[in-house]
Design goal:
2 copies of one chain form a homodimer. By secondary structure, chain A is of the alpha/beta class. Chain A has 3 domains: 43 residues, 434 Repressor (Amino-terminal Domain) (Orthogonal Bundle); 122 residues, 3-Layer(aba) Sandwich (Rossmann fold); 143 residues, Rossmann fold (3-Layer(aba) Sandwich). Chain A contains 12 helices and 12 strands. In chain A, helix 8 crosses helix 9. The first copy, chain A, is elongated. Chain A starts with 14 loop residues before the first helix and ends in a 14-residue tail after the last strand. The relative contact order of chain A is 0.12. The interface between A and B is large, with 51 and 51 residues. Chain A binds a DNA duplex (30 and 30 nucleotides) through helix 2 and helix 4.
DNA sequence: TGTTCTACGTGTATCGTTCTACAATATGCT
DNA sequence: AGCATATTGTAGAACGATACACGTAGAACA
């Protein structure tokens, strides 16, 4: 018969051992751990000391059975978008100094995968969920939001009451693109974007389309002069669509790619077809992701201040976790960042 | 007083309710869940039916208290490397058809952040851990490996007994670069890579350096003709180093950037300084990440078959989880993929 | 002195699952 | 028939933390 005091399991230090070492009750240690009410300074110190001495780490799975896990889930639509790291940096900013730690899931642009990941996260008792560019419908989101606090990024739902959102004003951004291109002297802008999907107006790409169309109308273009060409991402599809645009009748003199990762493929296609940027054709993206600044890309883009969006999303989430139930929707105003890809016509007014 | 049979908590269906519905014991349901021994076909069917009917999902946190969570952790060094998505695809391949689900952590290139994330994952009772390009020392790895099955990617430790690894042969890859550049007619290749760090020969960039140096020697270069310039990543540092190389005495006629994400910055710097690629200077990267194929990059690169590496890493991890204790180290042979950035001299033999 | 309040601690049921030990029944072998 | 051995199922104790309901000591006040 062993001493009953030394029965530790699997080498892991438990709250019980800490309590023994500090000479207090298990409940007291738990309180210290959670910064809960009813702990004297002396006790807090004593317990923290024992925890450090034994290098105790709370067992999240066990925590999850009764209380919080101090884990927030972050669902990313995919890994290939160079804009997302900026959002993640913002999320890290927002989490710094808290007990919370982010764990990521990758949706690979499939709503069934996303659903599976969200379920898995909920099953693992995450305390909150940030979804970046997810493909789920608002109704699905509300179902999830009833189980766990949710903040979405890249999905406009200003009327949603059960979850929060953090976004830039994509509709305004779409308009900025038109204003910028016209100011640079371009006369026949076209947009190229993802093929039709069933996301309705929540989807940011569609918001950008709407802004683009409205601004074109305001600038005096007739509806049949406003061109929005669809292409799935990937070099093959984008190249085919770009070729159809540029080698067809009345080719555009500038192209707006709905997002940077996508506009960089457009740039590749344009160059592969033998056109010069910006002399033959202007180009602008959206996000102002890091690679835009590379000399070989020099891509003008609409900055949506991703880091700030990430920060705000995190703030909203933590507020939700702490108990806020009224929805809040954060919106930041985007801004055009000029680079060489759209700088052509500025010196030669009117064609 | 409520019927004691209908006491479900927080809206969640539990194993108890499934058992009740199917008319069997809780233990039996658990067995079905785990595909454990001692369940008749009839019972399996009955239970699965009840689970579907009640749309039961096992509570991972509770599982974690006794058994597995069926979650594997994946620690990525950072988010900005366009090669990693390929590895992730491979990991997804390997996990497809199993019960396991990956959750990701992002280390931001800091070993303290990495340690925190690994701890958090272990505390959450992950069943296994894949580490991609991590910065921890082999000794730290062994400590972690004693708590949980570990497979590393991008870290050579062929003698490690407590964890597995999956890699390409980076030393051979470094040599391939030299052979390729010389075959293309370049005469003064240089390498540019990360600044000194303390990772010793485990680090893949150092393996590539070793291969580069050895191949240069074999080709007849004296040691003082073999140039390896350090630069931290980021356009500023890379540009400064590239300028020093190209505007200094005896400038190289080709540059090997240690990884693609980094070589694309080199390309940006080279162009910003007014040099033409490949005419003035050849360029080659490593990884054969997706953006290499863009026309504006056209970056020759060493393909290390990331998807296969991801697949193998996952296979190794699952084997470990199932009980294998003998270490296994997978190695794939890399291959040069020619693009325009190094195609210059092939038509004009010797300078 | 007695009463009430507040601050600080404790004991212990509980969370949803797994897993060990064992019971009950069926099957195989002499 | 009698006994050993599979096979299939059950009961109930963990697992490690949380949180509720209390207990107690001391201060404040009449």
């Amino acid at each position: 018969m062993d001493k009953p005091t030394s029965r530790r399991l699997g080498g892991r230090v438990t709250i019980r051992e800490v309590a023994e070492d500090a000479g207090v009750s298990v409940a007291a240690v738990s309180k210290v751990l959670r910064d809960a009410y009813g702990v004297s300074e002396a006790m807090r110190l004593k317990v923290r000391e024992s925890m450090a001495k034994l290098s105790y780490r709370p067992h999240s799975a066990a925590r999850g059975m009764r209380g919080q896990t101090y884990t927030v889930g972050v669902l990313m639509a995919d890994m290939k978008n160079p804009f997302f790291p900026e959002l993640i940096d913002g999320i890290d900013d927002g989490l710094a100094g808290t007990q919370y730690l982010p764990l990521f899931g990758i949706g690979h642009g499939s709503s069934s995968v996303e659903t599976a990941i969200v379920h898995a996260m909920v099953d693992r008792q995450i305390d909150g969920l940030i979804m970046i560019g997810q493909r789920l419908a608002t109704s699905d989101l509300e179902a999830i939001a009833s189980e766990v606090p949710v903040v979405v990024i890249g999905h406009h739902a200003p009327d949603a009451a059960t979850f929060d959102s953090a976004n830039n004003d994509d509709e305004r951004g779409g308009a900025l693109v038109v204003e910028h291109l016209l100011a640079q002297g371009y006369r026949r802008p076209a947009m190229i974007t993802l093929g039709r999907n069933d996301l309705g107006h929540a989807d940011v790409s569609q918001k950008r389309e709407v802004g683009f169309i409205d601004a074109m109308r305001r600038a005096g273009f007739a509806d049949d002069q406003i061109r929005i060409a669809p292409a799935d991402d990937g070099l093959d599809d984008v190249t085919a669509t770009v070729r159809a645009l540029l080698e067809g009748p009345e080719p555009p003199d500038a192209i707006f790619g709905w997002a940077d990762y996508y506009a960089l493929e457009v740039l590749s296609a344009v160059r592969a077809l033998g056109f010069r940027v910006p002399d033959d054709i202007g180009l602008i993206g959206y996000d102002n992701a890091a690679p835009c600044a590379f000399t070989q890309n020099g891509l003008t883009s609409v900055d949506q201040f991703g880091r700030e969006i990430g920060r705000q999303a995190t703030r909203l989430l933590i507020e939700r976790i702490k108990g806020r139930t009224q929805a809040e929707h954060f919106l930041v105003q985007p801004k055009v960042v000029l680079r060489s890809s759209s700088a052509a016509r500025v010196t030669q007014p009117d064609a």
